[in-house]
Design brief:
Strand order of the largest sheet: 8-7-16-17-18-15-19
Number of domains: 3
Shape: globular
Number of helices: 16
Helix content: 25-40%
Mean pLDDT: 94
Largest sheet: 7 strands, mixed
Radius of gyration: 22 Å
Low-confidence stretches: 443-450
């Protein structure tokens, strides 16, 4: 008989695991509580426009995520920079560009750092020495997870100004915490993998289509095309195990399975698994969470010429031009402001956010001062990611649980990556490998697929 695999959760990890299992010949059922796939990456309609709940980016080194898009047939909805280029804006100043050269790593960033006006010359040299020291660390060293990235950088003479104007430009969007609070182990992984190990690894990729076009809709087509049973609006409320089989129950339905892959968020997984694995449930609860707030601002005219930009000396962390994807009215411009580690903003009302951030945007984009705001709304992800604090490495579980056939998938599992699109997809591949237990998925290795897609 075909192995019955039930995947609870239709985010990136669940989508990947389900596709792998279906490709290996398993009988796959995907259960998703929402009326669409995509998990924490989704789109919604408001005032005749399409908005993404958050602004997700990826890097060239994110081979697994890029390969998934090629597999879904939606790679044309993203754009990958030919060369890392980050415009950095500050109120009343000309943009500064952190752009890599064609030199090999780590020299590829030397020119950008040498001309970075937001740091004094002495701070630039000190930052280069700190980067060299960071590149020598082994992210797998458990001792690194006992301290913060910020403490390491301070030890290497990084001033508060350097932390805010340079290091947090990378730490905040990747770790969802500032360097001062984030785990050194995860911080070392991010900087080594994305910026210091290869010249092109940090080239940035953007979603030029909506998340619905890029992930949600093509994933549903791909899963159904692979023979998977996709059940939307299905809430898994209880999970039981016995005699080598499982049962997943909802309010008025139940499903039997030989293997269950739990691919929901760590907060939801902890509650679902606690009756079977109480220690695991308690450990997942200790992972904590970190929020992300996204502000969506539609102006009646074009105010920004950059596709995206980072902010310094402003509450605006990153801003993205989403006009083409959102279907903004003719002549208008839709900007999305992404705020990571946004505990303060989570507590602010929409009106308070408007009062704080519209003047900040006007300081960065002078044309916004005379523009009319057509729409302003905020989307909030209270538990967007696990909290990348020191000690998090010991709390992240592997995909295999103590119960054979009960498997985990999600960014919180021990992928080595932070809570990113790439981490989600990699966890899905690993979960499927364990769930298949000897069955071989009929697909090329994801890195080979990524190379083929790029060529």
């Amino acid at each position: 008989m075909r192995r019955r695999v039930v995947v609870i959760g239709g985010g990136l990890a669940g989508i990947t695991a389900a596709l792998d299992c279906a490709a290996a010949g398993a009988q796959v059922t995907v259960l998703e509580v929402r009326r669409r796939l995509g998990g924490a990456a989704y789109s919604f309609e408001r005032e005749g426009m399409m908005f993404d709940n958050g602004q997700h980016v990826f890097l060239r080194c994110c081979t697994a995520y890029r390969a998934l898009l090629a597999r879904l047939g939606s790679a044309h909805h993203v754009h990958l920079q030919p060369r890392l280029d980050i415009p950095v804006l500050a109120p009343g100043e000309r943009p500064v560009r952190l752009r890599r050269s064609t030199l090999p790593a780590p020299l590829h960033l030397a020119g950008a750092l040498a001309t970075y006006r937001h740091l004094a010359p002495r701070e630039r040299l000190s930052a280069a020495l700190a980067a060299r020291a960071l590149g020598r660390l082994d992210p797998a060293d458990e001792a690194l997870d006992e301290r913060t990235l910020g403490s390491f950088l301070e030890q290497h003479r990084q001033s508060p100004r350097a932390l805010a104007a340079l290091w947090d430009l990378v730490a905040l969007p990747t770790l969802n915490l500032p360097a001062a609070h984030a785990s050194l182990a995860l911080g070392a992984f991010v900087f080594k993998t994305g910026l210091l190990s290869s010249a092109d690894g940090g080239d940035i990729g953007f979603h030029v289509g909506t998340l619905a076009q890029t992930i949600c809709e093509p994933a549903e087509r791909a899963l159904r095309g692979a023979g998977a049973d996709v059940r939307l609006g299905w809430r898994a409320e209880e999970l039981s195990a016995g005699a080598g089989a499982f049962e997943v129950r909802a309010a008025a339905d139940a499903l039997g399975a030989d293997v269950v892959i739990v691919a929901v968020s760590h907060t939801r997984a902890g509650a679902l698994l606690a009756p079977l694995l109480p220690r695991l449930g308690a450990s997942l609860e200790r992972l904590g969470s970190s929020p992300i707030v996204t502000l969506h601002v539609v102006y009646d005219r074009r105010v920004c010429e950059e596709r995206f930009a980072a902010g310094v000396d402003t509450p605006v962390q990153y801003v993205f031009d989403r006009t083409g994807a959102g279907g903004a009215p003719a002549g208008s411009q839709y900007l999305a402001v992404s705020l990571s580690g946004a505990a303060r903003e989570m507590a602010m009302s929409a009106e308070e956010l408007r009062e704080a951030y519209l003047p900040a945007l006007a300081e960065l984009f002078p044309r916004a001062r005379s523009a009319r705001v057509l729409h302003f709304l905020a989307t909030r992800e209270h538990a967007a990611t696990f909290a990348s604090l020191p000690g998090v490495g010991a709390l992240r579980p592997g995909v295999q649980t103590e119960i054979p056939g009960l498997v985990l998938a999600g960014t919180y599992t021990d992928t080595g990556w932070p809570a990113t699109l790439e981490g989600a997809v990699r966890s899905g591949h690993e979960a499927a490998r364990v769930a298949l237990d000897g069955l071989e998925p009929a697909r090329p290795h994801y890195e080979a697929v990524a190379r083929e897609a790029e060529s």
